[in-house]
Structure formats: C-alpha cells, structure tokens
Amino acid sequence: MKAAAITGHGGVDQIQVVSLPDPVPGPGEVLVQVAYAALNRADVLIRQGLTGPGVRRPHRLPHVLGVDGAGTVVAAGADVAGTVALGDRVAIFPAMSCETCSACRRGLTSRCTRYTLIGEEEPGLQQQLFAVPARSVLRLPDPLSLRDAAAVPAAYTTAWTVVVTTAAVRAGERVLVIGGGGGVAVAAMQLAAHCGAQVWATTRSEQKAARLRELPFVDRVFCTPDPGWSAEVLDATDGDGVDVVVDSVGAPTWRDSIRSLGQGGRLVVCGATGGDVPDISIRELYQSNRRVLGAPFGGWNDFRDVFAFLGRSGVSPVIDRVLPLDRVREGHQALEAQEHVGKILLQLDTGDAPA
Fold first, then answer.
1. Which long-range contacts (CB under 8 A, 24 or more apart) does 232-237 make?
2. SS3 helix, strand, coil % of the chain, rounded to 5?
3. How far apart are CA 274 and CA 285, in angstroms?
4. Which of 3, 234, 269, 280 has the most crowded Cβ, counting Cβ within 10 A?
5. 305 and 290, same structural domain?
6. Are 100 and 39 in contact (CB under 8 A)?
7. In 10 A of CB 287, how many CB atoms?
8. Per-residue pLDDT tens digits for 298-332
C-alpha cells in the first residue's frame, strides 16, 4: 500500500510517498480501506519538528502522518462480530486513550492522562489501509459521503467541543472566530450559526476575507493584518464587545481577542498555531468578568454527536480542495501559506481492493 510519511523533520522535502506492507487486523480490530484523509495544521507542525509543552512527537521515523480519515471496512480480526460489518462506511475516531479511567468511561477521551491522537506519536491515516480497534470506528449516517466524513473527525469534533460543549453558545450571541480560514475555525462558524449566533471572523488576508464573506453562515469579516484590531470589533458592537471569541492562533492574537470580549465574555482556546506564550493583562480578564476556557479535541461523545448532527441537519463540511496522494507536499504548502478556507483532503482510495 501507499502512504504519506516524513523521513525527517524540516521542509516539505521531508515528505515522501512510500510503499508499506499491508496491515493485518488483530483481535478486536478492523481493516479500513481509507478513501480520504484530511490534512491538518498538526501535520505541518509534526513535520517541522515542533517541541514544547503538550507537544507529542513521533516515536520513530519514517512516520505516517494523518489525524482524520474515512473509508470502508474490508477485513476484521477475531472478536469483532456484531460490532461492525464488512462493507460498512466508517469514520475513524483519532483519539487513543487507556479506555478504563473515569474520563474514558464517560466518553471524555481527551481528559485521559494517556490521551494522544493517531498520527502524532503513532502512525496516522494518510495510508491506503489502516488497522484500528473496532470500538474506534463510527458507522456514517447515510446522507454523509466518505469525502465529507474525512473532513470531520479532528476539525468538526474540536469545533463541537468548542462551540457546544465548552462555550455553550446560545441563540442571539455574537461569536468571533479568529483566523477564519482554518478547518476548525470554519467548522466553529458553521456550528455557531446553527446555534443561532451571529458569526464574525477575522483574517489577515484581504483575499481570504473576500472568500469568507461568500460563506452563507458568516455575518461579518474583519481584515486584521496588524495588532489593535479589537478597536474595530468594539466599534462594531457600540463598545459592548462580543460574547464568545474562538481562538486557535494563540500568542499573536490573545490580547486583541480578550479586548474584543464584552463583560462576562468567554475566550475559548483550541490551539496555539502562532505561539503559546501570549502577552496579556490579567486585569483585562478579571475586571470585566471574562473567562478563558480550554477546549482541545473532544471525546467520543463529541465525535458521535457531531456526526449525528451532520447526518440529520444536512450541513456539509467546507472542503477547500481534494488532492491525490502524490501531491501531498502541495497540501502542506497551502497550509503553511494559509491559502485555504476549510479542509484540504487527500484521496487515497484508487478503487483497488487490498492485496
């Protein structure tokens, strides 16, 4: 089978399309023929060799990338009968955990002390065949295609955790999403709009701002190439500020994000792609009753719930482009240049049956 793997840390030249032996499902596992896998900012950071608190790195090189994927069950190991059937279209839950602690038993997988994601320390989903525990696959709702499903696991589960589980966004609230073109950001805007919120976005690019303004669920876009843009947000709210800010950028945007909040506003943090050591004023938090809430990738409950929502609502994930596996470097370059709005997918299923 073919896979996208990094052979070292650095630029896109470290990504290779390699041939690997077909995996064999063990007891309790199924073999999924992966149709589509999504690219994430995490792929870029892993390839670049990011280090620091909370950063999980591959155990060994070469390392297959990929957090998200969807495909078809083509084989099963022992003790899988009744759990999932051959031919089922499934999405793969990317979180790995102990499965036994109190958090895992409640479906709050990301709170497990042994939590990690497929594609971080262990090989990921950017390969044509993937053996995974049967408990980690979810049958797709009939209306959802494999292509759309592959865009969901990381971005839309995280967005659900941010918007629904953590921020508890309510109808009539103003929600400001920072860095509006990324996969999580676009998903958060879609979900917030379906909660009845007024959705605003920021981006540093006028070209991307024009694309965001075309999205039917975005009410207003602020082009923010320089710090200090919170003044424009406050002007737009007559000084009241917004109710919720969703920020996955981190250090470069936190000060303006906090200043954009009204009294009692919630800053929900789901990433730090721009750096994790912000310069903030503590007084600007407590004197205005503002709150900072952490919301990493959610647990099985959020994963299950967001797929159920997509199945019954007819909402389709926003997909920027679909690339063949041999153009994976192009996808990385687009992520680094922040050219995309929504998800970038790799198509892995060529229609061939596994060997």
1. 233/176, 233/200, 233/260, 234/259, 234/260, 236/200, 237/174, 237/262
2. 30, 25, 45
3. 21
4. 3
5. no
6. no
7. 10
8. 889 999 999 999 999 989 999 999 999 999 999 99
| C-alpha to C-alpha distance for 134 and 137, rounded to whole angstroms | 6
CA distance linking residue 183 with residue 191, whole number of Å: 12
pLDDT band at 224, cuts 50/70/90?
very high
The pLDDT of residue 350 is above 70: no
**Alpha-carbon torsion 59, 65, 68, 70, what sign?**
negative
pTM score: 0.92
How far, in Å, CA of 1 to CA of 96, rounded?
24
Q: Under DSSP, is residue 105 helix (H, G, I), strand (E, B) or coil?
A: helix
**Is residue 353 assigned to a domain?**
no
Provide the pairing of β-strand 261-269 with 242-247: parallel
Is residue 122 assigned to a domain?
A: yes
- Rounded to whole angstroms, the Cα distance separating 348 from 35 reads 5
Could you tell me if 140 and 91 are in contact, meaning their C-beta atoms sit under 8 angstroms apart?
yes
Query: What is the domain range of residue 267?
Result: 158-294
Element (H, E) at 116: strand 116-117
> Is-contact 233 241, C-beta < 8 A?
yes
The DSSP secondary structure of 186-236, one letter per residue, reads HHHHHHHHHTT-EEEEEES-HHHHHHHHTSTT--EEEE-SSS-THHHHHHH
Check residue 146 and report its DSSP letter.
H
Whether 336 maps to a domain, the answer reads yes
Q: Is residue 65 part of a domain?
A: yes
Nearest to 84 by CA among 5, 149, 28: 28
Q: What's the rounded Cα separation, in Å, for the pair 334 and 86?
A: 36
The pLDDT tens digits for 266-287 are: 999 998 888 889 999 999 999 9
Give me the residue label for tokens 């070469």. 62
Angle, CA 98 vertex, CA 139 and CA 72 arms, to 5°: 20
